[in-house]
Amino acid sequence: MTELEALRSRHSVRKYQDRPLDDAAVKALQEEIERLNREGNLHMQLVLNERKAFKGFLSYGSFSNVSNYIMIIGRKSDSLEYRAGYYGEKLVLFAQGIGLNTCFVGLTYKKIDGAFEVGRDEKILLCVAIGYGEADGYRNHKIKRPDQVSNIAADSPEWFKEGVEAALLAPTAINQQKFYFEYVAPDKVKPSKGTSLAGYTKIDLGIAMYNFEVGAGRHHFHWLDSPL
Ligand SMILES: Cc1cc2nc3c(=O)[nH]c(=O)nc-3n(C[C@H](O)[C@H](O)[C@H](O)COP(=O)(O)O)c2cc1C
Fold first, then answer.
1. Going by CATH, does the domain composed of 3-131 fall within 3.40.109.10?
2. Ligand 1, atom nearest to 174 Cα
3. CA of 75 to the centre of ligand 1 (A)
4. What global pTM score does this model have?
């Protein structure tokens, strides 16, 4: 599966089969997490066979059989939230590519003492539930139009249109899609975030930027004023 195929087939999955991750999947995930932690200067950690974090919540999105998850943690800095989204999405697409399902989770989980490490000056940003979904999930939600999230025009380059299409498939908190991509000819893209009472717009922009890169092809453009 290519990364673009993984991006197109990903949906948030909240209900999982009650079985542990295969050894090969655990090994592949651990290696990818190490690689991305180095690349993104993060402290993401895989938590296995831990069922308490997702017990007893009836709130937004109802989860079942979550016993594995990734904690996205990093040292405090101005770019931390954007990087958490960007590298978190990179990891989520990797997981999709090896046959796993995921769901980013901002609020509806418990932080379990001893299940992961939070260093001094570090902050917990997000959790990502991971496992074999009961189903693949499906896209039953609204998606904005390209012209609502970009300055797309009939004569925009093809790669820009494809980048925007891919960004529109990005997961965002409460599906808010508060991001914007401005094409600056000939080969620059300026990303920006909107505002929201729900928050998470920096993380969402990081996620959408990663999707944009996959859709557009990294060699076609440079980010202008990247917050990463
Ligand atoms: C930063 C962030 C936080 C999220 N938090 C939650 C959450 O707390 N509970 C939940 O069920 N889904 C959560 N989601 C999943 C979104 O609801 C989901 O991505 C969005 O509705 C789009 O659906 P899709 O991922 O299937 O395309 C979160 C997603 C993101 C990106």
1. yes
2. 17
3. 23
4. 0.97
Give residue 227 CA to ligand 1 midpoint distance, Å.
Answer: 22
Model pLDDT for residues 10-56, shown as the tens digit of each residue: 999 999 999 999 999 999 999 999 999 999 999 999 999 999 999 87
Fold annotation for 146-223? NADH Oxidase (3.40.109)
pLDDT at residue 108 above 90?
A: no
**Is 27 buried (19+), middle (13-18) or exposed (0-12) by CB count in 10 A?**
exposed
pLDDT at 114 > cutoff 60: yes
